[in-house]
Specification:
Layout: H1 9-15, H2 23-32, E1 35-39, E2 44-46, E3 54-60, E4 63-68, E5 74-80, H3 90-93, E6 99-102, E7 106-112, H4 113-122, H5 124-150, H6 153-170, E8 178-180, H7 185-192, H8 196-208, E9 212-215, E10 218-221, H9 224-231, H10 243-248
Antiparallel strand pairs: 1-7, 2-6, 3-7, 4-5, 4-6, 8-10, 9-10
Amino acid sequence: MTTEGGCCAALIRKLEHFKKLSDEDKELLAKSVARTVEFGAGSDVIRKGDKPDYVHLLVDGWAGRYKLLPDGGRNIMAYLVPGDLCDVNVALLEEMDHSIGALSACKVALIPLAAIRNVMDENRTLARALWWGTLVDEAVLREWLVTVGSRPAQQRVGHLICEMLIRTEAVGLARGNSFDLPLTQQELADTMGMSLVHMNRTLQALRSKELITTNGHMVTVENLRALIKFSAFDPLYLHQQAHKFRSCMQVKVA
């Protein structure tokens, strides 16, 4: 069982890609957690229109930001992994304009809005680090807009795999070039703007090119340099120390 103090470990690891945190900073984050709750796969963590009393920090599992379409379809706009704050924006905006659903079984730490506001007001280091995390979320959204709007299907999925390898590695969840992708093909299709059949064929094509292998939910990048080149992937938008990705790129990132 994860203790409240340990709930912030992944968040701290993520924020330290921006700035080293002091022991006092880490203790303040840990003490901000009120309690943890669990959600089953397919359930909503937060719904559009909610006015949460807490900011939700993902501790275990994967979640996704999504909106429902008029025809009942779903568009997933972002993946959330351990260390991600689901809704820090409600500290200012107060009402959710989208929903967050559990894509796998999830454990979530609840941080009272008053505690988040106190951190932002009283601790400049943590305020800047949390603001950095929000800016990275916006950079990821911009990249996803380019991916869905402009990249062909195979490059679209290859680019996503590169991103999630970096993001899981950043919080200690990747093993070498492998990471757990606890999503259904339908959820991947909902994210990439594709049909289920098209997603299935796209994954088969990436496997046949020997770029990736899959074993259940485990994805392994078999040839990182080739996948980066094939997907035209540039890790700059993640603003993290992705040295092995940059070393695989033939063109130096400015």
